[in-house]
Model the fold of this input.
Amino acid sequence: MAAARQLILSGPFAYLIRIFKAEGFTMASKSKIAAAVLGASGYTGADLIRLAALHPGIEIKALIAKSHAGQPLAKVFPHLGVLGLPDLVTSEEVDWEGIDVAFCGLPHATAHQEIAKLPESVKVVDMSADFRLRDPDTYTQWYGGAHGATDLLGQAVYGLTEHYRDCIKDARIVACPGCYPTAILLAMLPLVKRKQIDAGAIIVDAKSGVTGAGRALKQNTLFAEAGEGLSPYGIGAHRHIPELEQEIGQAADETVRVNFTPHLAPMARGELCTCYVALKDDATVDSLRDALRDAYKDAPFIQLLEDGSIPATQNVRGSNYCQIAVFADRLEGRAIVVAAIDNLVKGSAGQALQNFNLMFGFDETEGLKQLPLFP
Done:
């Protein structure tokens, strides 16, 4: 063993070893990535912290939350107090030269303003809506104000991991999809790309837990208002509609319109999307399953269920998994595709971490191997 070690250190590998050491690498592992979390006091920020804190390649250097600046994390989120992370601060208090990546969980409009201030050396995994839409005019139409960082749109890659892996690896800014689009697009894009369904005739009935509305105080998410009831919202005008139409239209190579209605369900987290589709040509339920199976044969977090099994939010709670199943409709020429995710994990923080892994050369599943919590 000693002779073999001496051969490595003095032979042709010696030059490579010197380079690795000069760049801060060791033979065992590379240095941890220094991370900051913008919007650390929100639900997506909290779940990002929960996941990233146990990632072997991440060191959380800064937690940023303007209204909670100066407070310890244990006061804002008691369940995360055991982590011993830094107190929350403002963005201005952070030494950004020492940060490699920023996870952004800020609201739309606020996010692009803060991201625009960051040094070019900082990569960004954005969980807001500000860089999802490629057309700034579409953003203005749906979000009620002009985009304030249009010069950065060209640097942004849409972060639906399973469909944009190669682009995400080299991106500076990754725009993680909204929670609804994540579930819907994972179910629909392989079928649209294979021309198995009519891309312009998709109808989606979606339901989400109240964390999808954020942590800010809102009357409709109070326990007495949301508990023991089910209600639609954003009917015909939800802000995730242009995101769905952008991605489905690109896959279909045509302009499409998607019929999408979300509902608020009396649960903390979870999302279930039921998609009603019209089959094209000689497509069948079996060919839809084949298209999904082929698309996700190497996707570690996509669970394509067998005939008769039904996706459910309780089957993915707390995990980065997405369950998808295809069913025959009693109406001839139609099918029903159901997808379930945890809106805070695969629909936000988990997908963000999955994209981080690609951006920094980690295994795609690193930090995301936890199984669903049941019951």
About this structure: The chain has twelve helices and 14 strands.
